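Consider the tokenized backbone below.
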């Protein structure tokens, strides 16, 4: 008797480990959506803000009865901002958590590695905020709800040339980051096409903390501004370095700057700088205003563009599940591909044949340690 009981326990333990007896998971009365995100690490703000907003969109739909008669459950796994972890998280979200679709990542490099797994397994994925063109090129199951970097680069190049009347700009890019490399290229192409000159290119790697050599080199050039297409932790430190070395050039950047921590790290060194983004809470449509108010009431702070995009990515996915009428990968894929005139908080979303939307961008100006709406640029 004893031996039997023990071997039964051993078998049960094995089954539980392999996920076979997971009665909690993939319950037939709920639909599981997997979110992979940097919930910790030095881009933690990206994942956290996105996750809060995704959960708001899902809670709202659940309160109204869910989709296809079922409640929707979000399972979030932390990538810690690491590409290998992103691939692991996606594998787990599919195999163990039985996700019918995926949301994530923010960082393009991580969406590329997670997206390859999703595509191989034919589980549809919607990245809220990865802007590098290569992300949706991974395959026909990968979608996004944000604009792309060739557009974003052009927005800032135009702003630099036409609004700021700049002729000579230096670039300081993160060579460990697909987003940064791509956006630097896009800016360079557009700025040159508009008659401007890139007088110097310097580089760093994500996680670096000392930028004095690069900033000194730029100081000794005749640049009138520095384009820094990076993530907030390094951008904040670069701004501080420039201030310490008495470099009085404005910094220009992209959506990667979008985090309250940018101001904690960079402080007043960022005043007079500009960046492009997906969303400005102070220039919102009625639908977006309601989202900003709800987010603020729930989380005690305004959402960033990441929150707005996370909310839209979840809403677009939930809408596609409703229209598909089922949750199998190909049906969901087709429904996502058919998304048309979806009214999101970041604007209207129509998915094109390359699984991207066409969206406008905003330019923000940093004044008194805060980002303020400066302009909207349409495609
Ligand atoms: N667009 C960035 C990327 O592709 C991610 C990002 C989006 C960061 C929006 C901040 C805000 O890597």
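A designed sequence for it:
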């Amino acid at each position: 008797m004893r031996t039997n009981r023990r071997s039964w326990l051993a078998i049960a333990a094995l089954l539980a480990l392999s996920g076979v007896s997971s009665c909690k998971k993939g319950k037939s009365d709920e639909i599981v959506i997997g979110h992979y995100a940097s919930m910790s690490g030095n881009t933690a703000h990206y994942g956290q803000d996105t996750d809060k907003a995704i959960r708001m969109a899902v809670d709202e739909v659940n309160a109204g009865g869910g989709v296809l008669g079922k409640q929707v459950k979000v399972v979030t796994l932390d990538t810690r901002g690491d590409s290998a972890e992103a691939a692991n998280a996606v594998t787990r979200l599919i195999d163990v958590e039985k996700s019918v679709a995926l949301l994530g990542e923010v960082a393009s490099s991580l969406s590329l590695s997670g997206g390859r797994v999703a595509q191989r397994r034919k589980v549809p994925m919607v990245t809220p905020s990865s802007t590098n063109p290569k992300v949706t090129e991974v395959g026909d199951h990968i979608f996004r709800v944000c604009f792309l970097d060739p557009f974003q680069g052009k927005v800032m190049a135009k702003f630099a040339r036409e609004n700021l009347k700049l002729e000579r700009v230096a670039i300081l890019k993160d060579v460990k980051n697909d987003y940064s490399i791509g956006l630097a290229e896009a800016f360079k192409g557009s700025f040159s096409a508009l008659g401007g000159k890139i007088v110097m290119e310097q580089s760093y790697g994500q996680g670096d903390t000392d930028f004095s050599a690069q900033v000194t080199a730029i100081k000794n050039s005749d640049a009138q501004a520095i384009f820094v297409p990076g993530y907030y932790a390094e951008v904040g430190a670069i701004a501080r370095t420039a201030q310490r070395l008495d470099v009085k050039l404005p910094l220009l950047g992209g959506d990667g700057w979008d985090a309250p921590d940018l101001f904690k790290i960079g402080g007043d060194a960022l005043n007079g700088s500009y960046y492009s983004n997906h969303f400005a809470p102070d220039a919102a449509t009625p639908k977006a205003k309601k989202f900003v108010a709800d987010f603020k009431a729930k989380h005690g702070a305004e959402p960033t563009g990441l929150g707005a995009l996370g909310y839209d990515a979840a809403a677009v996915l939930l809408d596609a599940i409703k229209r598909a009428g089922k949750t199998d990968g190909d049906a969901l894929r087709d429904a996502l591909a058919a998304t048309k005139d979806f009214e999101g908080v970041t604007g209207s979303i129509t998915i094109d044949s390359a699984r991207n939307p066409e969206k406008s961008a905003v330019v923000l100006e940093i004044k008194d340690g805060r980002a303020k709406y400066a302009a909207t640029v349409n495609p």
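The pocket of phenylalanine is lined by residues 46, 106-108, 129-132, 179, 255-256, 258, 305-306 (CB under 6 Å).
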